[in-house]
């Protein structure tokens, strides 16, 4: 199945539609089909369900860095979908187009939540 993100005038994803590969064998044909279906000339970008952080989880070719979700931004210069910034202190990893905290998530197997006020990981699920 092919997945397509609909973009608004600010390149924000407003919807993601799934189209059969027979109907959308390539991006241009998929966009033409969706515009015909919806009766408008919307802005659509194909997205890969199996792509995250610039890696394809089935070993295929990664596509636009990340699978698009509603609220994500399509960045034309990076040709990438980027999720909304979760906290002001996070910075964008340019290679993966993922937001990263200023301190890496602990790798001790515990569960933590980010505390923006103290810029630390707090154990638990606040």
What do the pLDDT scores average to?
95
Separation, N- and C-terminal Cα atoms? 37 Å
Beta-sheet strand percentage?
25-35%
Separate helix tally? 1
Helix percentage range: under 10%
How many individual β-strands?
11
Tell me the number of structural domains: 2
Shape: elongated
**Parts with pLDDT < 50 across at least 5 consecutive residues:** none
The profile of the biggest β sheet is:
3 strands, antiparallel
* Helix-and-strand structural type: mainly beta
Side-by-side strand order of the widest sheet? 2-1-3
Secondary-structure element pattern, one letter each: EEHEEEEEEEEE
**Cα Rg:** 17 Å
Give a written overview of the molecule.
With 126 residues, the protein is mainly beta. The protein contains 1 helix and 11 strands; from the N terminus they run E-E-H-E-E-E-E-E-E-E-E-E. The strands form 5 sheets. The chain has a 3-stranded antiparallel β-sheet with strand order 2-1-3, covered by helices on one side. It has a two-stranded antiparallel ribbon with strand order 4-5. Strand 8 and strand 9 form a beta hairpin. The longest helix is centred in the N-terminal third of the chain and has 12 residues, at 27-38.
Question: What is the fold's blueprint, element by element?
Answer:
Blueprint: E1 2-7, E2 13-19, H1 27-38, E3 43-47, E4 51-52, E5 55-56, E6 73-75, E7 80-82, E8 91-93, E9 98-100, E10 112-115, E11 120-123
Antiparallel strand pairs: 1-2, 1-3, 4-5, 6-7, 8-9, 10-11
């Amino acid at each position: 199945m092919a997945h397509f993100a609909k973009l608004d005038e600010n390149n924000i994803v407003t919807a993601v539609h799934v189209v059969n590969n027979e109907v959308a064998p390539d991006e241009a044909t998929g966009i033409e089909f969706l515009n015909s279906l919806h009766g408008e000339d919307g802005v659509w970008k194909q997205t890969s369900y199996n792509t995250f952080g610039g890696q394809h989880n089935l070993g295929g070719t990664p596509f636009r860095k990340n699978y698009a979700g509603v609220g994500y931004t399509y960045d034309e210069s990076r040709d990438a979908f980027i999720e909304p910034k979760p906290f002001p202190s996070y910075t964008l990893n340019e290679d993966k187009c993922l937001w990263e905290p200023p301190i890496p998530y602990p790798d001790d197997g515990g569960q933590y939540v980010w505390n923006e006020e103290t810029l630390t990981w707090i154990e638990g699920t606040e």
